[in-house]
Specification:
By secondary structure, the chain is an alpha+beta fold. The protein has one domain. Helix content is about 20%, strand content about 15%. It has five helices and five strands. It has a five-stranded mixed beta sheet with strand order 1-2-3-4-5. A hairpin with a 5-residue loop joins strand 4 and strand 5. The longest helix has 12 residues. The relative contact order is 0.14.
């Protein structure tokens, strides 16, 4: 992936906290033990392939402004690598960050485009619908 000017991770390490990484193992909502206090990865050059391959949508989508940077909005926006779903992943300590009006409008727009849109926080998840409704999944 080519870097988009102005869209570097910098001090953001939100993905290092909210994502579950089976290769370590690292649980969702727990900061990765390899994450440095000022951001960045302590094992960057030997990090697992799953970490090498990962980019959040904020970094990949020119249409998502600085307001959408995960550590600023409390939600990580991403394509699910195992399906055609779109995910908004939140810190389990703040499971409703996806309800921020800015994020919620984005998610509903994607649902209107026919996408399956899911909000996730730890083991909890919600489906977001094109009419602006949502339902917690069992």
């Amino acid at each position: 992936m080519l870097d988009i000017p102005g869209k570097d991770c910098g001090s953001c390490s939100f993905c290092c906290k909210v994502l579950e990484i089976d290769e370590f193992p690292k649980h969702a909502g727990v900061m990765c033990a390899n994450c440095l206090s000022n951001g960045g990865c302590g094992v960057y050059h030997s990090r697992p392939q799953v970490c090498r391959d990962y980019y959040c949508d904020w970094k990949e989508d020119r249409g998502l402004s600085q307001q959408y940077r995960p550590d600023r909005i409390g939600t990580l926006l991403m394509e699910d690598p195992d399906s055609d779903e779109y995910h908004a992943v939140c810190d389990p300590a703040k499971p409703f960050s996806w309800r921020n009006p800015l994020i919620f409008r984005h998610l509903v727009t994607l649902a209107k485009d026919g996408r399956i849109v899911m909000a996730k926080a730890g083991l909890r998840s919600w489906r977001i619908f094109a009419d602006g409704g949502f339902q917690e999944c069992a």
